[in-house]
Amino acid sequence: MNIIVTGGAGFIGSNFVFHMLKAHPDYRIICLDKLTYAGNLSTLEPVMDNPNFRFVKADICDKEAVDKLFEEEKPDVVVNFAAESHVDRSIENPQVFLETNIIGTSVLMDACRKHGIKRYHQVSTDEVYGDLPLDRPDLFFTEQTPIHTSSPYSSSKAGADLLVLAYHRTFGLPVTISRCSNNYGPYHFPEKLIPLMIIRALHDESLPVYGDGLNVRDWLYVEDHCKAIDLIIHKGKVGEVYNVGGHNEMANIDIVKLILKELGKSEDLITYVTDRAGHDRRYAIDPTKIHNDLGWLPETKFADGIVKTIKWYLDNEAWWQPIISGEYQNYYEKMYGDK
Ligand code: NAD
Ligand code: DAU
Hints:
seven-stranded parallel β-sheet; 42% helix
């Protein structure tokens, strides 16, 4: 089986590449990634020499490059992780979110139509459902919850989801969509809450908590998300949406305090800052469908996953230090400049 994984140099995509090469040693995995600020080729170093792995630097919006890759690799499956993924950046500059997240998705699906494909899988997010109130813990996002977005990021992801379902209905493209809650784990880019707080706490820097810190996210260890996608592409039903989440809701402030405790740092580092515009209050996934239909259940408990994650950041300063300093942006040039 030949699988194109777009966005495989980012956080979840790279974890998925590692998972697939390990779980299916006979599959060929081709990673297509533009290496934006969020893509880091050094993450993929452990698999660069694997004969079943190929890295291609390209933009999913670039029709010619995508077409050429499909021509060369004749993929059976495409899993699209490539996206602009950070809500705060989408508030600063929405345009690139529309280009990559919506136009990029259409370019990939057009190539799938042209070349034929067994499955196109779109990696989406629970953010397409908007948010839930804090005082209604009985409410959860199901696959039937109406799309109701808050940020340019979530709107661009919702736009892409609608397009994916339209390509299924109009052109019969064999698609699936997964909508997952917040992931955490190794290789998480340090602009996101958990790695940002770990790294700033290690440097005894202030920890910027937005608003009152009571916003709730439903955290899932990244490996569990990768296993869910693996199941969906093999056993999921074409045309279906699957919610992925672990019933692990936590307020931001509690996560920050937990990180401080694990690192033996003072809560005096916590600084409440101006809230994110349009800040979603609570996310909570109901994963009943993927459990009942595909037998998926999260395997890593948050108490274990967060300790593993903190340890990973302590042990892998060589990965995040160049990111903090901006040095990693020269990495591709250094590695591939004269090739
Ligand atoms: P990330 O920002 O860490 O990585 C994104 C990757 O996509 C990077 O490697 C980047 O270089 C690449 N990319 C960006 N634009 C591209 C383009 N035009 N062409 C080719 N490659 C491009 O993101 P992530 O957190 O790993 O998220 C991956 C996917 O999962 C996204 O689609 C996101 O919406 C979705 N998702 C993320 C989470 C989460 O908690 N992080 C949860 C649910 C869904
Ligand atoms: O729910 C899935 C989504 O999770 C994905 O679709 C997104 O790609 C991913 O980035 C993530 O979005 P969030 O906005 O929830 O993640 P972030 O890490 O940016 O923020 C988590 C919470 O922490 C959120 O309520 C905002 C808050 N926060 C974040 C940062 C960066 C802070 O309080 N301070 C911060 O400095």
